[in-house]
Amino acid sequence: MSFRIIRKQEFDKARAAGGDWATRLELFAAMCRYNALVAVKKAGSGHLGSSFSAADIITYLYLEEMNVLDVGFDSDDRDVYFSSKGHDVPGFYSLLYALGVVSEEKLLMLRRLHGLDGHPEARIEGVESSTGSLGMGISKAKGFAIAKNYKKAGGRVFVMTGDGEWQEGQIFESLQAAAHQKVSNITAIIDHNKYQTDMLVKDVNNIEDIRAKAEAFGWHVQRVNGHDYAALRDSIKAADSDERPSLIIADTVKGKGVSFMEDPVTDASGRAYYKWHAGAPDDDHFYKGLVELRKTIVALAEKLGVEPIDAPEFEIEAKTSSKATKEFVAQHYGDALVELAKTHDRFMVMDGDLSADCKLRDFEYAYPDRFIENGIAEQDMASTAGGLALMGIVPVVNTFASFLAARANEQIYNNAGEGTKIIWTCHYAGLIPAGPGKSHQSVRDISLFGALPNVTIVQPCNGVEAKALTEYCVVEAKENCMMRLNIGPSPETIQLPDDYELKVGHGTALTDGDDALLVGYGPVMLHEALLASRYLKEVGFGLKVVNMPWLNRPNAEWLAETVKPYKNIFVVEDHSVVGGLGDWLLNSLNENDALGDRKFRKLGIYDYPECGTPWEVLDYHGLDGMSLAKTISGDDALDSKIDAGEVEKKYTADAPQ
Amino acid sequence: MSFRIIRKQEFDKARAAGGDWATRLELFAAMCRYNALVAVKKAGSGHLGSSFSAADIITYLYLEEMNVLDVGFDSDDRDVYFSSKGHDVPGFYSLLYALGVVSEEKLLMLRRLHGLDGHPEARIEGVESSTGSLGMGISKAKGFAIAKNYKKAGGRVFVMTGDGEWQEGQIFESLQAAAHQKVSNITAIIDHNKYQTDMLVKDVNNIEDIRAKAEAFGWHVQRVNGHDYAALRDSIKAADSDERPSLIIADTVKGKGVSFMEDPVTDASGRAYYKWHAGAPDDDHFYKGLVELRKTIVALAEKLGVEPIDAPEFEIEAKTSSKATKEFVAQHYGDALVELAKTHDRFMVMDGDLSADCKLRDFEYAYPDRFIENGIAEQDMASTAGGLALMGIVPVVNTFASFLAARANEQIYNNAGEGTKIIWTCHYAGLIPAGPGKSHQSVRDISLFGALPNVTIVQPCNGVEAKALTEYCVVEAKENCMMRLNIGPSPETIQLPDDYELKVGHGTALTDGDDALLVGYGPVMLHEALLASRYLKEVGFGLKVVNMPWLNRPNAEWLAETVKPYKNIFVVEDHSVVGGLGDWLLNSLNENDALGDRKFRKLGIYDYPECGTPWEVLDYHGLDGMSLAKTISGDDALDSKIDAGEVEKKYTADAPQ
Lengths: 657, 657
Hints:
The structure is a homodimer. Chain A is of the alpha/beta class. Chain A is about 40% helix and about 15% strand.
């Protein structure tokens, strides 16, 4: 393994150092930042900006304030800490490693299967609560605190929130209820680093003045420099001695500790733009960051008179990135919106602080008067869309599927019941990318929309279909639409026939084969389906793969015709086996007595989605091409009979780019 | 029809009167209250307390402020008004009737099929938006206002909220976003009548100081007497001239205009308790209220010098209420919690301002330290439960199914992913009672929980099963449980065999029969299923009815055995046909190749749930006993072959009470 981190014993050395206590903490925090940078670089993704802004706060809490290392994580009397935003978890894992809670092996398995999830998971030692979807933390802290009171246990509850997170209404529910219920043993800390995803909080959806707000909600509020340990100490002392629940607004710098990560740039519209929210830095920036942190560490160690800290220098092999430009289905969707806007003036686009990820920036710049950036407030966004629709506008509402389908579910029901038309675009649908973990992976969205009688659910498999479906949804559809989009680059560009035409309720065959039928959708699962068909072809098993973009509106006649020649029918999806396309097809076949004695099997997610690399996670869930091929053929030894690598190469070479 | 209302021409007379404008409005509002009282009495239920507190505000808006009667409801330039809380709709319908928007026939069909829904529905002329689930209104108003700006249309947007409603976090999302987006053409008005369901807002979950809160969120705020027309006029003028979105806190009296409805009583714990939130008054109180309002009307008319207003005196036939005491399944659940608490100290009970409806008051009084009243803040409640569970407590979380399953869905997912155990009790599940309309009817809850891999979903059919399942969920279950409870009185007490024992995954036969199998659950649908079997027996058709309380955990072997003798299998549910028990049974049969050539049909909700009386709505959805019997037997003329009334009588006489 070429990645190296600062070892636990170096942290012990730093903690044992004499000299100024604040300098000791500063050194410890810099070392945590160093390891977080390595872990994220190795993982290939992760949130450094807020890991760095929060590092001094958690360093102070665990080294100076909390009793948990003494009494243990199982003690009811422990001080509890967790981060509500959860994005800052690479920094937190680094701290847990430094404290001996998490192993070196695990830290270098950030975002890997059986490693450390991309957002906090309660199953990991030292992690008190699963988080990552925003706004839940103070409520959960309230639960911890009430349980402590009921059990007459000691210990305080600290919860870190982001600042953009304060756009979530649940925060204010929790402030109000905590004050009313007189839950005094909570201290919430805002890592107020001023930036949410990539823009200033004040540009997205200004949350100022937090102090006045929280005070109006009956909380004790202080504002301090979140990089000043003495100030943090004093503020927590003051919080402890107040009868009310306490909020500490900690002013911090996003990316703190690595100079180039502290500086925003300017985007095309002249706004401040922050580049280091998520994602691993390229090799140059990675080394530059390491060098800078190493310098800081050396200087602080010297200042404290500690023996030199081993902050390892090492070289990693530059990754050879594939030259081929991968397709992003969502980009075609975003382009289609820009194109449609030229001729259709009755739709508007809404976003929940994910404009860049949702490929909406071009629309945002081109049609600022038709673009509503609503911040991280999905319920408000959904109901605002409802109001727009009642006034004859077709709102096209965008955010990640997990947040839209679940958090705004009742608002979506309310709107749909009004008989207006709204397009709900669920980005980051499905299992992959799997690095961010289950707070972000969306495998329930179809089921969450499914019982709404007037919503058509679709998912395009490639750019062509994305454009066609966008036009269908925005212009042609008579009812609400939910569009499911994979967020990552398509593993391969799915090829539709030259004479492809979008036809409601109909799928399109991608391969021919006589031995079994496999229906799927979206670029991620269709790629695996195609892999399966290619593997199986090697052993003479003909698998017909059908792309079915209409997830809840199968045309019964087409479906009956399509399954007719087959004894074995499979449906594959990056969604729960409950409530997905499989259930819709099974029901259609059953209702129309078209199933007969055919075997119909659903291949999808049976458990919570796992974190890891795409291949790890697809394999874990039995949804990678080889697992599919084995399941479909019933041949468990298939992998020993063919050279999967050779098969893949053959088709990659053949594929048009 | 024995119910009579004040006719439209009387309102015209009042509006045309000379004299003091405020007195004229007062008269008009009193007349609206009169009609609201009649409409609610006729409907048998409805919200009078907040209809009366809000009456002066809407009277002022429509008679003095808004342009909508001149420009029409289709004009983009109209002033828009709607109520976010929606409970005040009997008063609003009365106003719409008085203004000639809604017909007399409709007003007297409050809460009836094809009449006026128990909460506002956008399909009704004059109703701008469907509401009734709390907290969405200001967001929707923002949508109206933004659309007006985009269309360069005139007109303002007024939205009424309740005060308890300010416990919902979405309110604060909408305040924040509206201020940031500089949506100035919104005026929100709080009908601040101090009481939520039946308790003081300040006792449930104090929202004070609203002024400080809303100001901190960047809104222009005023506080006025909501029964003082001049003060309302001045405040709206001030709101119009301010650049910010505006909030008017209108202090009102719940039940205003009928003296005995203005007064709270005291509950067993010494708290103020308000009796007139929902439900129709008994005959005595009804006449007493009418007499008082008539006196007010006469006095005001005299003062204005208007000819006497015809506020009709009439007698209604006293309803002969059935002597039999009906079973409330939820009461047995509530009793079971009290009983279990004696021997199990590790569970706590949470409530979202529906303690009485959820039959939790006994628990609340008996175990105040284990009861958390969280107010109308479902997301906070769900995540607080998550925190409790992480500390080893089993939280039993209660509110209406619609609000819990949908609004807190992401929070429930987050908790469930932590592997803790929480009981989610979804009260008011299903179609019936149908009077409150689709905001309250819950026909998606199973589908919303279905794709969570570690939640067992159950529904008891009677008190015995309710107790057994409560103990199972709280004590025995190893995973999360969702318990679905019908809220109304059971139409008949479902009789389980004497040797009944709860067995995971197994159903229980209620009748025998060789010709078809019908699986159902819960007292409402099983009653209809039993009716169907009784009707069919008359024509020699044997229908086996099976109670299946395990909605997503069928035991495959038991199911295969149960269906084996039948060619025709039906599942009936007061849930969407998507994602309910039917899908779970179909999947189990399919996976285990146990379906064969049997016909399997799902009988459930295909569209949005309709409003009306139980029979109207069951019939509308084809789910009443006769419709079921016809569908199952395929005999469309069944009703002409038997005397359904006689059949029912026979079984009612037979049934043990």
